[in-house]
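User: I'm putting together notes for a lab meeting next week and I want to include a structural view of one of the chains we've been expressing. I don't have a solved structure, so I'd like a prediction I can at least talk through. The sequence is below, exactly as it appears in our construct file.
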Amino acid sequence: MILGFLKLALVGFVLLTILYVLIRIYARSLRREALENEYDEGHGDGPREAYIEAGMRDYEHSLRKKLILLVYIVPAIVFAAVFWTLNNP
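Assistant: Thanks for the context. Below is the predicted structure for the 89-residue chain, given as structure tokens.
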């Protein structure tokens, strides 16, 4: 039984890691596109690449980037809640 749980945990971790990487790439591309559109609309100062790189550095330290880690936390909490509910009468 413990071996089956460890296999499930390992497969789940690998799948969540793949999902995390894909969401992170997608979120970065959305932010970069938004910065490019802002600059093209005339809201940016200086060279285009410098403006975009400064915006991406700000994104790296933002709360939005950290919230993507919920990809690991929420499924673990849901799994624990379902497991506890089903095993306690």
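A couple of points you could mention at the meeting. The longest helix spans residues 2-40. Helices lie at 2-40, 48-60, 63-67, 70-87.

User: Perfect, that's what I needed.
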